[in-house]
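PROTOCOL LOG
Step 1. Enter all chains and additional molecules of the complex.
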Amino acid sequence: MLYSEKVMDHFEHPRNVGEIPDADGVGQVGNAKCGDIMRMYIKVDENEIITDVKFKTFGCGAAIATSSMATELIKGKSIDEALKLTNKAVVEALEGLPPVKIHCSVLAEEAIKAAIENYRQRKNGGGEGITVNESCASCEH
Amino acid sequence: MTKRRIYMDHAATTYVKPEVLEAMLPYFTDQFGNPSSIHTRGQMARSAVDRAREQVARAINAQPAEIYFTGGGSEADNMALKGIAESYAKKGSHIITTKIEHHAILHTCEWLEKQRGVSVTYLDVDEYGRVTPEQVEAAIRPDTILVSIMFANNEIGTIEPIAEIGAMCKKHGVLFHTDAVQAVGAVPIDVQAMNIDLLSMSAHKFYGPKGIGALYARKGVRVPSLIHGGAQERGKRAGTENLPGIVGMGKAIELATATMEESSRRIAALRDRLMKGILERVPDCRVNGDLEHRLPNNLNMCFKYIEGEALLLRLDLAGIEGSSGSACTSGSLDPSHVLLAIGLPHEIAHGSLRLTLGDGTTEEDVDYVIDTLPGIVRTLREMSPIFEH
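Step 2. Run joint prediction.
Step 3. Record the structure below.
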């Protein structure tokens, strides 16, 4: 089969889909030309714990599943712990991805990093409402 | 697979019709002779091959001696392009084709450019996927040896002006090949009237078995041997014939031709019903390809703000089987070269869906898709960061 049961579960029933209007950090990665765009919203409390996280994704089955899993993996974690999340961990949690789809998990890791970077920028008094990183590691667009 | 499944991917492949399977079976069990054997069993097999060859020839108004059985459509394409490039190398080494051909043509052309020093002109198509005879004429040079233009496109269904292009090629003394893999069995083809010199076809697109196809090459066109060995296929493609496959192909093409007019009318009506139903219920979508010159069973659409593979997966979960031109489904980084060639931007091309109906498709099937698709599109759009409510 193309995808594992775990991946199909996260695809069919994605966790944490949506937006957070008063988010503390918003990050977006990928671009429409690639066919992959992930946007992550995080709510962070005064102890730097991620209390809420939501995502929106334009992309394939693996893109949706990896972003869903990524939100699950960082919810309730500290910012520092979330920064340590690797794409490998996402793939493992999903019990594997086809080799051609591994880059989707990389994008999910980058989306989290972009949201956290946005949070940090805002905290330091600067930054936009959203941190966007359009370059996609795996293609030349 | 248990619950109801609706197969709408006939352009990818078709089921083998019961009459075809029935015609094939004896050639596995009882009448399994080698057509080259002298004994009766062999000679009966030989007759079966001859009959199938006649059936195939009749379907396109060719002579049986002009039909070469191959392992499929891709092989026929390879045989045509590489064969003509080799046989007519003294005359020239320029080939004209289009940007929307199947990869069996495009990748073979690229190989000929790289490995054989052939120069290839890839003609542009308009926003509906059509190429004109005038474009072909303008591209013909003194050293042009072949024009290869597909009869109908597998993704968007557009039918090219084949008879006019054939006439143009004849006028300029250039051989004309058409990859008719998607067209044979679906629309009438007459290689005499249309001035076609070479044609590729594949049985599994018209309710025959996989692994068998044919190349038509007009008498007088020099085609070199693809496979050396025995004398099968007039020495052009040696090897003991795929007897059941050949019999199946003959039966399938005969059935398809006999019912073509009625079938295509029925399917086109269902396809139009499907198209209308989707356009009415789903906003921000468009149909790709020529609406008038189009394969009767083909519907290809783009849905803004969502991606094709995700759409296919959700449809599959609902029992609906289609295909897409998105990058993720093609296994490459770019969406379908056909959708890009008709001018669609990447982000739109990624959200494509191809539904191709068949002889078994019913009105209930179509209505189920019309009822199910809008909800799926809505769900994916609500998840999309580029969708503004």
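Step 4. Note key features.
The longest strand of chain A covers residues 36-44.
The mean pLDDT of chain A is 93.
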